[in-house]
Design brief:
199 residues; four-stranded mixed sheet; alpha+beta; 2 domains; six-stranded mixed β-barrel
Length: 199
């Protein structure tokens, strides 16, 4: 089950004025969507919401929404930040069943750059997809997709079909889609080629 619990209140007033009143009261306004039920305007205390957001496990993860004695598994789909203060300004949550099959974007990270011959020779890592869409159960969303760059040379690429994913998690993209590649540096030559030219 989810690590994060958000204690929510139902907002009586909606629209711009209602959201403004909610923020003045020290809360972040949001909307709960999804399932067979109508959207509900909700709010979470700003300090509680900031704490959940800064764990890095709020967006794109299964979260428990709590309203009184009721609980509901949800996915946090979007968080809008204020452009000046960078404070949470609005959020969207989607109702799910924790064992429901869903599609969700998961961030891509890279490991072992020092073990890539292409990068060691002056090549650059060209990232085409910073996140990949995966299909999995709502309670089995990976924290990240890790790509091992060991052995990658200039001209090599990592495709969706190359991704190593946990059991029960599958890509929701065509296997031929390129996630990242090792490209020639912008100077057009690697150190080895420059030395060969001088010789």
């Amino acid at each position: 089950m989810a690590d994060i619990v958000l204690n929510v209140e139902v907002r009586e007033r909606t629209g711009t004025g209602g959201a403004r009143d909610t923020r003045r009261a020290g809360k972040v306004p949001g909307v709960l969507y999804g399932g067979a039920k109508d959207p509900v305007a909700i709010s979470v205390r700003a300090n509680e919401f900031r704490k959940a957001l800064y764990t890095g496990k709020l967006l794109g993860h299964l979260v428990t929404l709590k309203y009184g004695d009721e609980t509901q598994p949800v996915i946090a789909k979007a968080v809008d930040m204020h452009p000046v203060t960078d404070e949470p300004w609005h959020f969207d949550l989607y109702r799910v069943d924790e064992h429901q099959q869903i599609k969700i974007d998961v961030t891509v990270h890279f490991a072992n750059e020092e073990a890539s011959p292409g990068l060691k020779r002056g090549g650059t890592l060209s990232v085409i997809l910073h996140a990949v869409t995966l299909a999995c159960h709502a309670d089995s969303i990976p924290d990240e997709v890790m790509i091992d760059l060991t052995g990658l040379d200039i001209g090599d690429s990592v495709r969706v079909s190359d991704l190593k994913l946990p059991a029960g998690v599958t890509p929701a993209l065509d296997g031929d889609v390129v996630v990242a590649s090792v490209a020639m540096s912008k100077t057009g030559t690697t150190d080895g080629e420059a030395e060969g030219g001088e010789a």
